[in-house]
Each structure stands twice: as C-alpha cells, then as structure tokens.
Design brief:
The chain is of the alpha/beta class and 530 residues long. It is built from 21 helices and ten strands. The strands form three sheets. It has a five-stranded parallel beta sheet with strand order 1-2-3-5-4, with helices on both faces. A three-stranded parallel beta sheet has the order 7-6-8. α16 packs antiparallel against α17. The C terminus is likely disordered.
C-alpha cells in the first residue's frame, strides 16, 4: 500500500489532518480540565504524529482489538494517557465511551491516570513508571520476530510502534532495553520520540545533555528526525522506517501543549490542568468552536474510517490462517498458552523422583531438570539469562540461541541487563510468549519493582530465576510470588498442572551451593509453584 497516496486521499475526504489531530487535543484538554488533574501537554504536542501514524501506517482493526497480527502501539509515556484514550474512542474500539473519557481519572472509569492493561481493549501494556513501556516493547518486538521465525510471515508479520518521552529515555531501564534491541537488530521496532525539551522541572537541559540520536546510533539503531507538526515530514520519516533492517528512532520535534495560548512550550503545559481561560484561548487558536467533549460528526466519521482501515488486511490474514491447516491449530494453541496434557504427568514423575532421592544438590541443578521437562513439552517457551547461563543452568537440552537477525532459537543471552530482561519478558509474556529468565537472587527483586507490578493482569507472569540465591528476604520474596517456590524439593510446588489450560511456567531463585538449605528454605510455598 502506498502510504503517502492513501493518506492524501484520506485527508482530502476528512478535511485537513490538523482537524483530526485537534480532536485529540480537545478531548485531552477537556478531560484533564474536568478532572482537575492529568497531563495535557504530551497529547496535545504529539497529536499530529499520532494522527499520521494511525491514519496511514498502524495496521489494526478497531472492531477486533485482539487480532494476533495487528501492529502494537505502546504509549511508553503513560502519563499522556489521554492521547491513547482519545485515539481508542475516536477510532471505535469497544470498551470505551465518551462518558468514560468525561470521567477520566475518576473512580470507576476505565480511563485511569495511566493506561492499565485489560481495562480497555487496545491498551497493549500498562505504562506508568517511565522507561517501562519502551522496554516492554522490546520484548513485544522480540516475540514477533520469534513467532515469525516459527510460523512464517503468512501468520506473523507486524510491527511494534512506541511513543516515548524524555523521561523514558532518561530512566536507566531504557538504556538496557535499547542496547539489547540494537544488538539483536529488531527491525520491526519503531520508536517515536517526543522531542520537546520540557520536563516538569523545566527544560530537559536542566538535568540532561544527552544526544539521543547519537546514543541510539551507538546502540545499533537507525535514526531520523522530523517536524512533529508537519504532516508531510512525519509521513516521510515513517515511510523511510518501514523497511529498515534495524530498529528505528524518529526524533519528533514538537511543542508541548500545542495550541495552549500561554503555556505551549513551557513546563506549565506538562501536567497542570489548563484552566478555563487557557482552554478558551486554545479553542480559538485551534479553530475548535465546539462544546467540551464534542467532536463534529464529519471528524468522528473520518476517525471511524481510520479505525476500519485495516479490516481488509485482517480478512486476508484470516483466509491465510484458515488455509494453514494444522499449523493454524498450533498457532492458536501457542497464543492461548495451552499446556500439553502430558506435561502434568511428566512433572509429577519428576517430583516423585526428587522426593524419593532427596538430592543434596543446589536448587539450580534441580531447576535445570525442571526446565528440561518443561522445555521438552512446551515448544513455545523461550529461556534466557542475564549473563549467568553456565552458573544458573538455564540453557537446557535442545535450546538454540537467538542471535542478531536470527530469531528461530529459544534462548536469549540478555547480557548484564537484569532490569531490561525483566521488562522484555513482561512484553513477551503478553500474547504470544512464555518466557523464562535467570539472574542473581537479589536481581529477582527487579521484577518486584513497581514498574513490573502489572503481572496480575497478564496472561502469564514472566518468571525470573536467580543464580546465587541471595539473602533470605529475596528467596522469601520469590517464594511468595505466583509460580515461585523456595526449597530444593519444593521447586515443583503443590499445585497440579492443569492440562490444556494456560498455566504459566514459574521459576525461583536457585541456590548456588550443594547441601542442606537454611531454615528460611523450609517455609511452605505460599502460593504454589509448578
């Protein structure tokens, strides 16, 4: 499809692109003002970029938010949540109404202050703490490439787009994720950086002088820049990124709070409710003479057309899938996380063996045996380690490594990137993926950091195994987490595996030394293991 031609046609039918973008701006400032709380600056600044992306590039079908081969859109700067809520409502996603937007940030509304996975279809991952979304997206892009290698381009061929801010790039976790993505040459990952040079304290240069483009280039990315308020320039940059052989960063130069008469381009636009006078001025500046929360029929109709733009591509994909026969059934089972019926008995047998033999070995060795059984029965598991593979025994029989540009393997060398590994695993754990990873015992708490608290809303809890066991508090923490259990012979836990259901695999921080475990290892598994 010629994106430039399709965009020109669409804009001609719908009026100027700026009017479509102004619908996002108006909904964002109205919702924030009504709540007396929120972040209007980023949605108003990136509205033009979002409009070009959704109208001409993003492959999606609003009528079916769970279409497996849709492009993923991750709003990493989750504080600008009204951008996403406005887009979801305007394009016609189910599960969100204008009343929900009117009650933005209020009790009972699915339009929370930061997007929460599972609250509204179309929210691909929870994004609150900065740096988390872009790091999750690396896992999503990695899962896409792995599934593409496994099932082919007829079933898996989509991109992951990320909208990120200064805060995302300053947070340390993003450094790890960015370098991993560049090393692996994740060519289907495109990051749109809201380059507005404004933070809550003031200009970003108060605290940071990093050259973002040079940093990404050093990590192996392709970089570009565009005027974030010039539709033609945005279109050019996104067109150039479509067939890149590596991940792409596009620095979008924008004005935060675009349209606000006195606050645009200042820190006041970042996170303050604009106030009635400022909003009245913005309505005039944007030529938006409509009442709060009102979108004219012709503009809403144009957005709904955008929401259905991917319907034909979706239908063609369904035909390909229906023609795939047995492979399609395997594909569906992989997405559902279906556990083979023979896994349960195999784990019960291994558990009985542990109980009978009472092995006096470090739990990492027992962990390897458990992983060996799991990986042998579930073809979709992807293991990995934060540069501790020979120490934590996470590479089991038959697993080949994923390497730059080659994604058919089932093992990832994450390097010394515990934070990045945990975040990437969170992204992979969203359909489709069953990741497992290993790190030092104390590093398991990275996964318990608030930026990874969303696992209760996920299909799978991506496990993180440890190498050294760590202090008692870390082992105890892991024992209390879903799918984890302390103690050598308790590693299989006391919860039976239910065949043909989506039961995620789980690990724990294995101990290094052979011999008896300390008293803290004796506590029964709090929430079950495997």
């Amino acid at each position: 499809m010629d994106n430039a031609a399709s965009a020109a046609t669409l804009w001609k039918e719908a009026g100027e692109l700026r009017r479509l973008a102004n619908a996002i701006r108006a909904l964002s400032m109205d919702a924030v003002e009504n709540a007396k709380s929120g972040h209007p600056g980023m949605p108003m600044g990136m509205a033009d970029v979002a409009t070009v992306l959704f109208s001409s590039f993003l492959k999606f079908d609003a009528a079916d938010p769970h279409w497996p081969d849709r492009d993923r859109f991750v709003l990493s700067c989750g504080h600008g949540s009204m951008l996403l809520y406005a887009l979801l409502w305007l394009t016609g996603y189910p599960g969100i109404t204008i009343e929900d937007i009117k009650h933005f940030r209020k009790l009972g509304s699915p339009c929370a202050g930061h997007p929460e996975y599972g609250h509204i279809p179309g929210i691909e991952t929870t994004t609150g703490p900065l740096g988390q979304g872009i790091s999750n997206a690396v896992g999503m892009a990695l899962a896409e490439r792995h599934m593409n290698a496994r099932f082919g381009g007829a079933l898996v061929d989509h991109k992951t787009y990320v909208m990120a801010s200064d805060g995302d790039l300053m947070e340390g976790i993003s450094h790890e994720a960015i370098s991993l993505a560049g090393h692996l040459k994740l060519s289907r990952l495109i990051v749109l950086y809201d380059d507005n040079n404004i933070t809550i304290d003031g200009p970003a240069t108060l605290a940071d002088s990093t050259n973002a483009r040079q940093r990404f280039e050093a990590a192996g990315w392709i970089t570009d820049t565009c005027d974030g308020h010039d539709a033609a320039d945005i279109l050019r940059a996104l067109n150039a990124a479509q067939n890149a052989d590596r991940p792409v960063l596009i620095c979008c130069r924008t004005i935060i709070g675009y349209g606000l008469p006195t606050r645009a381009g200042t820190q006041k636009a970042h996170s303050d409710a604009p106030g009635a006078e400022e909003i009245a001025g913005a309505r005039k500046a944007l030529n938006w003479p409509y009442a709060p929360f009102t979108v004219p029929d012709e503009i809403l109709s144009a957005w709904r057309t955008i929401g259905s733009r991917g319907r034909d591509a979706h239908a063609v994909w369904e035909k390909r899938k229906n023609a795939a026969g047995a492979q399609a059934k395997t594909f569906d089972a992989a997405l559902a996380g279906t556990v083979p019926a023979n896994l349960g008995p195999a784990l019960v047998e291994l558990k009985a063996k542990f109980s009978a033999e009472k092995p006096n070995t470090g739990t990492r060795r027992s962990s390897e045996k458990v992983l060996d059984v799991i990986n042998g029965h579930i073809a979709g598991t992807v293991g990995g380690s934060a540069d501790l593979t020979p120490s934590n025994n996470t590479l089991t029989k038959g697993l080949e490594a994923i390497t730059p540009g080659h994604f058919a393997g089932r093992y990832i060398h994450y390097g010394i990137r515990e934070h990045g590994m945990a975040a990437a695993m969170n992204g992979m754990a969203l359909p489709p993926g069953d990741p497992a990873g290993g790190a030092d015992g104390c590093a398991d708490d990275f996964r318990h950091d608030p930026r990874f608290h969303r696992r209760r809303r996920r299909r799978a809890d991506p496990p993180a195994g440890g190498a050294s066991g760590g202090p008692a508090r870390h082992s105890q923490s892991s024992g209390d987490a879903p799918g984890r259990c302390g103690g050598n012979r308790r590693m299989l836990g006391n919860r039976p595996v239910q065949p043909e259901t989506a039961q995620p695999a789980g690990l724990f921080p294995p101990g290094r030394a052979d011999g008896a475990r300390g008293p803290h290892r004796r506590k029964p598994c709090g929430k079950g293991g495997l």
